[in-house]
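I hope you will forgive my troubling you with a question about protein structure. The matter concerns a single protein, recorded as an amino acid sequence and a row of backbone structure tokens. Please examine both parts with care and let me know of anything in them that strikes you as inconsistent. Thank you for your consideration; the sequence and its tokens are set out here:
***
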Amino acid sequence: MKIEELPSKIFVSGTDTGIGKTVVSAMMTLGLSATYWKPIQSGLEEETDTEFVRRVTGLSDEHFMPERFRLQEPLSPHASAEIDGVTISLDDFQLPEAGTNNLVVEGAGGLLVPLNDNDMIIDLIERFQLPVLLVSRSELGTLNHTFLSLEALRSREIPVLGVVMNGPKNESNKKAIEKYGNVEVIGEINTIETLNAKTLMSIFNTIFNT
């Protein structure tokens, strides 16, 4: 995929939690000089995702929008919200006016993570009408998780930009995802020893041939 083929607004989701979608979001935010927005932050004891993206990209404040919900516990949004005495509704969310020309929105966990008794992350994506960049792991187990995620997105007719695989390169899994998932693996991100703006920009340039 070429950089000029990318839409101005992207939703970054993952096949699971803890698979590197925040790193991918940081890379996309920096590479596109975009505005970053994490609608729901679950877990405030350590560095938040917004704080992480700000630190590793070195971008100025105009590139960041405040979270709509900041929930204390690092749990699924519905569970964390219940502990905080908060109710999350899809009506609480509106896409922000980006301070830049592009917008990168990062989800919480995977697609079928509950927000409340009725709605999940995928319902939020559908509300926003944004195409999804799906982040998956490269190692064993990724095929099932990736194909289920692709099926869920397609059942809602949500456009899929492609897949970014995180972890040690695995050509077999890459080929299988492209063949059976009928999707392009637009990038593979190996282990990054030093994570900063320089390395993120280098990966972005490699993926998009800039």
Notes: The chain has one domain: 3-208. Strands lie at 9-14, 35-37, 40-42, 69-71, 103-110, 132-137, 160-166, 185-189. The chain has a mean pLDDT of 95.
